[in-house]
Protein: Histone deacetylase family protein
Amino acid sequence: MQVFFSEDHRLHFPQAELSGGQFVTPYERPSRVEYILRQLRERGFDQPADPGPCDMAPIRGLMDPGFLRFLETGWDEWIAAGMKGEMISATNPVRRTQMAREPRNIDGKLGYYCLAQETAITAGTWRAAQSSAASAQAAQRAVAEGAGAAFALCRPPGHHATADMFGGYCFLNNAAIVAQMFRDGGADRVAILDIDFHHGNGTQDIFYERGDVLFASIHGAPEDAFPYFLGYADETGAGAGEGANLNLPLLPGAGWDQWGSALDTAIARIRDFGPQALVVSLGVDAFKDDPISFFKLESGDFTRAGAAIARLNLPTVFCMEGGYAIEAVGINTVNVLEGFLNG
Ligand code: OKP
Ligand code: ZN
Structure:
């Protein structure tokens, strides 16, 4: 399986994440990828290839132009406005501000485009986010050209980012970009399977009214887990997308019995949908020792998950998302990939 990875992820490493009223070292940190790279190396995977530059054309087709302008130029504006710290949003449009429009002031703009305040923007964030999307794009191209599957070792992750908001450690929605590239390349239907512990609100939002991209997600119930405001089972899609959104929320403590059977449900739905390509939002934070999650998967369960996904027998792009139990993140990620290859 080809692996794509860019060292430019290092350009994004905020000093602080707002967590429980404290500033802590971000959970989503550069060293996460070192553990994944080491496991790939030790277990005989191909040397990761650099993806080359990010192709902005498919991204501009999917994302809000004002949001992209903000990501591109926001940091310079912030510094020019005399701000001294990292970009952390303090004021956001909330209920009954549906008519909110982009402010001129950069602090206001930051709030306008931010969906969760734990995520800071720094000088290198935009370039890192582009390099992450570039890895996803290179993996898509490899699979479109006939590789059965490819792994994009994306960092920062993507599935919380909408067409016009960042947050939950995400800036550009890599999985959505890949799905759209498959569509643009001629696939009539594409499925996205999101196995990250957190609901992929961004991916859901981007495709919610579209019937050509199925989004299926297994995640911590929104009553109890970030991103809190989306991910309920009754969100089934709208308009042309009615029926093309499947949320499988699970309560705290869910282990393989429940999680594995939710995976079977998602896989059956994907099979019924009849896609020509599959994108997997591959988070491994459903692991029992994850510091910010509450499922109970064992490392061996990730191998079983990979094998189950392989039975779909689809051209597959894996995009890395979350996983914060730093010692195990490599083992669990590569278990999914190995389970898939042997499945
Ligand atoms: C990103 B991905 C920690 C709370 C963190 C944000 C979680 C983002 C997860 N005190 N809230 O889906 O793994
Ligand atoms: Zn997650």
Remarks:
- The chain has a mean pLDDT of 98.
- The longest helix spans residues 125-144.
